[in-house]
Amino acid sequence: MECYLARPYDRDGCRLAAERSIRVLYKKGINGEGQGVVVGGTLREDCVLSGVTWPGGVSFEQLGGAAETGTRFRYEVPGTVALHVDDMLIQGPSTLEFAGDKLRSLHGHYTWRGKQYRSYQMGPGGQIERDRE
Predict the structure, then answer these.
(1) Which of 13, 68, 70, 127 is buried most, with the most CB atoms less than 10 Å from its CB?
(2) Do the beta carbons of residue 54 and residue 75 sit within 8 Å?
(3) Secondary structure class of 66 (helix, strand, coil)
């Protein structure tokens, strides 16, 4: 479904400014009717999701999550996009997973403190693992 937002939208971890267009998928109930819960989509313009400003062309998918950790989302970033997330410059195609506004993992090439990496993973205890190029 293509939507044009006449007013700001804030639901299920999606915070979108007014006057934005977005393609969304909604969760269906037992009777097949939409429940109004966003489960995925493709950003048509720059939008804020999970506390990050994403450019148009990025696709996202809700993975679930608990109330205490926040809704989990996975983002697919095309290869033509370069963006900054948590002091990292991400270049090229990548997949990022967030729990609420917290980055949990990143698979793709990125630069952090002048060094090249290809993956980022946050462990259950909050420890961060980075895989160097």
Answers:
(1) 13
(2) yes
(3) coil
Measure the CA–CA gap between 95 and 83, rounded to whole angstroms. 12
Going from the C-alpha of 122 to that of each of 16, 19, 45, 104, the distances in angstroms are 26, 35, 29, 5
CA–CA distance from 65 to each of 56, 70, 77, 99, 125 (Å)?
25, 6, 21, 7, 17
Using alpha carbons, select from 65, 106, 63, 116 the residue that is nearest to residue 85: 106
Read off the pTM. 0.73
pLDDT of 2 higher than 70:
no
Given a cut of 90, whether residue 13 has pLDDT beyond it is no
Rounded CA-CA distance 126/44 in Å is: 33
Structure tokens at 1: 């479904």
User: In this structure, are residues 4 and 21 in contact, taking their beta carbons and an 8 Å threshold?
Assistant: yes
52-90: per-residue pLDDT in tens? 888 888 888 877 765 556 678 889 998 888 899 999 999
For residue 55, the 8-state DSSP code is P
User: Each residue of 90-102: b (16+ CB within 10 Å) or e?
Assistant: bbeebebbbbbee
